[in-house]
């Protein structure tokens, strides 16, 4: 009974003794290299403050003093009116040669 208690204390104490080495972590009889220190992630950046719109101008600019004069010569109207574009009326004979209104085609 005492032997079991001594073995338990010896084995159990090795698991809970903190390692005095700063570069190693020992658990029981096994030692591992300490992982490199990782900086905790930075907190998320706060959104920038809203940009203030510039204040309205204090004085309204005056209207122009002189109006531009109207054009002296008016351009003449066109001499000939261009004809309207020719639009071919739709015909079923272009694509459908078997249409009853189309003349029979000679081979």
From TrEMBL:
The protein's name in its UniProt record: Extensin domain-containing protein
Keyword Signal: yes
Keyword line: Signal
Source species: Fagus sylvatica (Beechnut)
Position of the signal peptide: 1-22
Source superkingdom: Eukaryota
Keyword Signal: yes
